[in-house]
Each structure stands twice: as C-alpha cells, then as structure tokens.
Specification:
The chain has a single domain, classed as Jelly Rolls. About 15% of the residues lie in helices and about 30% in strands. The longest helix is centred in the C-terminal third of the chain and has 11 residues. The chain starts with a strand and ends with a strand. It holds the Pfam family 2OG-FeII_Oxy. InterPro entries: IPNS-like_FE2OG_OXY, IPNS-like_sf, Iron_ascorbate_oxido_reductase.
C-alpha cells in the first residue's frame, strides 16, 4: 500500500494520527520495516514510541487470536500509525503487510501446553469463540458506541473479554491487557503446527 502524506487539513483533523491505537484481531501480522517512521508502539510506561527502522528486517506482531490461545502469555502490541517526523513528513510511504488468520472455525481455546496450563489463564467467560467469530465481533464493534463509561477509559465486553477504549488525540483506540513472552516457550512439541489461512 502506498500512503501519500497527509494534507495540512487532514493532519489538523486527525492531530497527526493516521490509524488509532489497536491490537490486531488476527493471529500474526508481519510488515517489512520501512525507513519512513510512522509506526509507534505503546510502551509499558504508557508512552508512544516510534519503531526504529532496521534494513532487511520485519516487524512481527502477535494478534488477539494467538494471545487468547496462549492464555495471555503472548501479548499483542498496542500500536498506531502517526504522521512521520518533520524531516520525513512530505515523503510517500510504502507499506508491505501480511496478516495471517486462523482458518474459520478454530476455537480460540488454550493450546495444549504445559507452560500455558501453568502460567496462562482462561480469558473468556462462557462460550469460547472461534477465530471467525472473534474477527466478526471485532469488526462489527468498531466505531459502535456501546461502552461502559469510566473516568480513565471506557470498557466494552466482547465475548467475555474486557476491551478498553482510551481517548487518544480525539480518536478511540483499544487496549487489551495480556502478558508477553516468546511463542517458542509455550509450545511443548517442536513439530506443533498452526493452521493458517492466507
């Protein structure tokens, strides 16, 4: 995808935020690292920081589906796209992405793993959704104002998961609370296979 620079009017309307903060609702997202700086991640200290460009590198993001299946051991990173710094703001940006999804019907239940059983937690109240049910619920809820109003953030319940919405420069974004680790550490069998659709 090619992104043209924001016009002055667009930049003013969005306060420079081109895609508000979110976690990906799929399993794994991959993007080619690009020299024009626009991607930011929300760090543990609640500060947005730019993702540094590395030549010949990929940015890999764990999505909601894998987070759920790991019992919260893997965490999807809250990220957003903003107006590039002043020295890059007039440049066109090329984004090359791949969003991997589980095939429809895969239950987002905990994987059969010793580590997940010991350290993970069940994240859903009641029925565990399938991969396609979760995607549909996230897509359908986008932009719908059905929140429990709070002082610091608003909450929406999707399939028993609390999704937090925080006002960021006038744009809503989601913050899911899960814990992080390397995917390799939760799989007991090295030949474990995930079925993905492309």
């Amino acid at each position: 995808m090619i992104f043209d620079p924001l016009t002055a009017s667009e930049s003013e309307k969005t306060n420079g935020v081109m895609l508000s903060g979110h976690t990906d609702f799929n399993s794994i997202s991959c993007l080619v690292s690009q020299p024009i700086t626009a991607l930011q991640v929300l760090m543990p200290d609640n500060v947005w920081r730019y993702v540094k460009h590395e030549d010949n590198a990929y940015v890999i993001n764990i999505g909601d589906q894998l987070s759920f299946m790991s019992g919260g051991i893997l965490k999807g990173t809250m990220h957003r796209v903003v107006r590039p710094p002043a020295d890059q703001v007039a440049l066109r940006r090329l984004g090359l992405y791949h969003f991997a999804h589980f095939v429809d019907g895969v239950p987002l239940d905990l994987v059969d793993s010793k580590k997940v059983k010991e350290e993970g937690r069940v994240l859903f109240d009641g029925k565990i959704p399938t991969s396609d049910e979760w995607e549909r619920s996230r897509i359908k809820s986008f932009g719908v104002d059905k929140f429990i109003k709070g002082e610091e953030y608003d909450i929406e319940i999707l399939n028993g998961i609390q999704v937090r919405y925080i006002l960021d420069f006038g744009i809503l974004h989601m913050l899911t609370t899960l814990i992080s680790d390397s995917f390799a550490t939760i799989i007991d069998e090295p030949c474990y296979k995930l079925t993905l659709k492309y």
